[in-house]
Amino acid sequence: MGAYILRRLLLIVPTLFGIMLINFTLTQFVPGGPIEQIIAQVEGGGDVFEGIAGGSDAGAPQEGGGDDRYLGARGLPQDFLDELEVDLGFARIVCAEGYQGEPTLEAEECTKEQIGIAERFFIMMGNYLTLDFGESYFRSITVTELVIEKMPVSITLGLWSTVIAYLVSIPLGIRKAVRDGTSFDTWTSAIIIVAYAIPGFLFAILLLVLFAGGSYFQIFPLRGLVSDNWEDLSLIGKIGDYFWHIALPVTATTISAFATLTLLTKNSFLDEIKKQYVITAKAKGLNESSVLYGHVFRNAMLIVIAGFPAAFLGVFFGASIIIETIFSLDGLGRLGFEAAVARDYPVVFGTLFMFGLIGLIVGIISDLMYVLVDPRIDFESRET
Hints:
Layout: H1 2-27, H2 34-43, H3 78-87, E1 91-95, E2 110-114, H4 117-129, H5 143-178, H6 183-197, H7 200-211, H8 235-254, H9 258-273, H10 276-283, H11 288-300, H12 302-306, H13 308-317, H14 321-326, H15 332-342, H16 345-373, H17 379-383
Antiparallel strand pairs: 1-2
């Protein structure tokens, strides 16, 4: 097993490199970079895409010596654009040999030199290997601090949604397997299929309308993860306030998670119940509970239990941006969306690297969970 784990760990490097390379390359073809975004804000022109959408004057000569590459840079001095490129890492300052002093664009002996796409990629990857993810272009905070700041919301939605889904789906799936084909199995299947078909954001709006002061009841708060006076509350009060705030968003996030897990549990148990060792156990006079939980449970729950890390990761990083927006929760979903729209590349690529690395490691943990639950599984022997 040690050799298998070592191989999987070594595969993380080329896999992660490929993920970063593909996404970095794709961004080079996306119109409107971070410099254009800053120019649009300075000019007060609103959305940067207005200047690159092919308007009547989109290709007109630039005023004030602006760089022709930045179609929105009308009236901005070239010195400003040069400093912007250097600050954002798209260019560097190169000074003549023997120059003494701090390299600046104002010095006659120094000039600006563009950094190529390939060089920028390898500089970025070199920094990431030392866990230096840089600083956001627009927030004046490091990417690591930004992710840590947004993490509580994503942990809340991911952890509680996964736990609730498992606590409900596993007993329900077992019950459906035992009573397969009965009316209970039929109407519960209908309910979970309908729940799966309802979009999460639509269900979130329904919850707000019904229970958050929309048109009926004012039971739960409308926004935020905790109340404004949370620091002043007692420990019990803080716990209660926390669960009071997360009740609706967690419910909206979890509603569609029941179907897959419930049906997976049911099918796993049905498959085991039909095997010979179960028939033999029943023939020896064991009651249904002893057979079900003493013999079937361990084998049937293999795929469900071993898949917990991956399931949690999927909910954790797949939190809906729409649900976060509806409940005014500032989590990783909104962070990723806003960074992509603003072309905040340090945030985009930094989070992609971190989450990609975590995802690959969780894949290895999932394999170890399979072996832990069922020692008969040997991934190493299967590869030889």
